[in-house]
Each structure stands twice: as C-alpha cells, then as structure tokens.
C-alpha cells in the first residue's frame, strides 16, 4: 500500500500517521493539511509512520475528518440510498457514516420522501468541499458516443423501469436498455449486476443483455445450479418436465438455459438424473 499523493475528499486515501494525541491520530493529507482520525477508529498498536486507509469527509461541525468506516458509496459513484430525514435544506440519506448525505432540493429529480430509496450520484461541491448527492442522474451521464463492442462485459446499475424493460447505467458512464423478454431474474432500482453489450445502435443507443450467449449462459449458471442442489441436501426436484415459470421463479433463468446447463453437467459427470429429480454425484 502506497501513500496517496493528492488526498481527495469523498474518496479512500492511504495516509501516514504523523502524530498521536489523546483524541486520535493526525494524518498527513498533503495540500489538505493535517487531518484527525478520531481515537475510536484507530487500529490497535497504531504508531507514527503507519500508513492507514481512510475515507475523508466533512463532519457535522464542517471539519475535514478521517474515518476507517466504509460508506455505501464514494464521490463519483451511483448508489441507491434510503431517505432518513427531510427538512428545509433537503433530504438526508443514510450512507453508512455518522453524518447523513444531503440531497438539496435543487438536486432532486422528484421530491424525496422519508423511508423511500432513491438512486443518486454522490458528488463533491467544489465551492464548499462538502459531499452531496443528486437524483438528477442525466447530468452525470456521458453525452459522447459510447465506444463499446458487441459482447463486451460491463458493470450495470439498474436505473429505472420503462415500457420496454429496464434502463441501466453502464460503467458509471452511459445509459443502456435491458429488454423485458430477455430478463430472467428479479431486478430492482440500484441493483449492481454484470451484463454485456448486445449492440450499439446507429442512433447511439445501447442495448444490453445479462448474458453473452447460450454457451456463456450455461457456464455462468452451472455453479449456481450446483449450489442450489447442494443447499437442498444434494438433490432438487426440478427436472426437464418442470414448468418454465417454476424454473424462472426458483433459479432466475429460462427453462432453455436450465436444460442446457443440466446437459452440460451430465456430460461432465457432476450430476445424475434420478426419479426424484437431479442429484449431485
């Protein structure tokens, strides 16, 4: 682990301990000065010169402070968070730190309500150095044409339901679309999931799919099916006569993928067909 050259607010940084005090340790944050890591976060046997991985943020007293607690997101990331309070300043989200994350009213796509979850982008207000969040997601999406190839594996964050399926944020950069008839698992807003580029259309819009193709789908699903059988004592009642709806509800895949995967595992000698269903070897 190397020391962070330029410490960043709202990010994890690797900083050196330069002083130990009764209230904690002071860390060298370069241009940001000396930052306090409160005593409750100090590792055991911490000493001057140690390199610590910490998160920098502004506390409720508007002081720059360090913590070893991992927040649910860093600056520059999209995340689904729960509203815990609303007041004249805006909505406050629980993001895993003592100071809740503010979404000012001018950063709310729709007015937020206590108890509900919203997909937001965490950002740093350059004028105040305060970390905030916004549900106006479009302004954080890249407007330049995407440079993807069919079959590219990407990271997706489910962004919302549409008439055709679900829109998803690709690699924190672009919007794409997953079609309802190609989704065989439960999706929710904010869920992070791997996916693949199905195609980049002539108008620049991007179609997505949750598997690269039948062969990869079988390979990706094999371990899940084996785990499913193992969790049930080594045998599952599901078989090639099971209803497609039951297979999809139980395993989150189509019957076609289920049958192809079982066939693949039979060839490899990992399962056998029995009267009761499918059994681990």
Provide an overview of this structure.
With 281 residues, the chain is mainly beta. 14% of the residues lie in helices and 39% in strands. The protein is built from 3 helices and 18 strands. It has helices at residues 214-231, 244-251, 255-267, and strands at 12-21, 24-28, 34-38, 51-58, 64-67, 78-87, 90-94, 101-104, 117-125, 130-134, 153-161, 165-170, 174-179, 192-200, 206-209, 235-236, 271-274, 277-280. The strands form 4 sheets. The protein has a 5-stranded antiparallel beta sheet, with no helix packed on it. The relative contact order is 0.08. The model has no long low-confidence stretch (mean pLDDT 91).
Keywords:
five-stranded antiparallel β-sheet; 281 residues; mainly beta; 18 strands; 3 helices
Give the structural class.
Answer: mainly beta
Q: Proportion of β residues? A: 35-45%
Residue-averaged pLDDT: 91
| Anisotropy-based shape | globular
Which strand order does the major sheet show? 3-2-1-4-5
Number of strands: 18
């Amino acid at each position: 682990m190397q020391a962070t050259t330029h410490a960043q607010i709202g990010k994890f940084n690797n900083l050196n301990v330069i002083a130990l005090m009764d209230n904690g340790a002071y860390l060298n944050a370069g241009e940001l000065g000396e930052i306090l890591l409160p005593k409750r976060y100090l590792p055991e046997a911490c000493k001057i010169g140690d390199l610590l991985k910490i998160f920098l943020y502004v506390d409720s007293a508007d002081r720059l402070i360090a913590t070893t607690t991992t927040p649910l997101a860093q600056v520059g990331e999209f995340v689904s968070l729960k509203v815990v309070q609303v007041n004249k300043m805006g909505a406050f989200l629980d993001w895993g730190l003592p100071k809740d994350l503010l979404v000012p009213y001018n950063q709310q796509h729709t007015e937020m309500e206590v108890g509900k979850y919203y997909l937001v982008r965490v950002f740093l207000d350059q004028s105040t150095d305060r970390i905030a969040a916004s549900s106006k997601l479009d302004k954080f999406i890249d407007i330049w044409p995407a440079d993807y190839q069919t079959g590219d594996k990407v990271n997706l964050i489910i962004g919302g339901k549409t008439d055709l399926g679900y829109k998803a944020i690709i690699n924190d950069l672009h919007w794409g679309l997953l079609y309802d008839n190609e989704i065989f698992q439960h999706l929710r807003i904010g869920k992070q999931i791997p996916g693949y580029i199905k195609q980049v259309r002539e108008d620049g819009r991007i179609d997505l799919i949750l598997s690269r193709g039948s062969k990869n789908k079988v390979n990706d699903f094999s371990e899940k099916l084996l785990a499913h059988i193992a969790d049930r004592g080594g045998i599952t009642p599901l078989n090639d006569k099971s209803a497609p709806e039951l297979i999809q509800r139980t395993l989150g895949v189509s019957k076609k993928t289920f049958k192809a995967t079982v066939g693949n595992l039979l060839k490899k000698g990992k399962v056998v067909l029995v009267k009761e269903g499918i059994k681990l070897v």
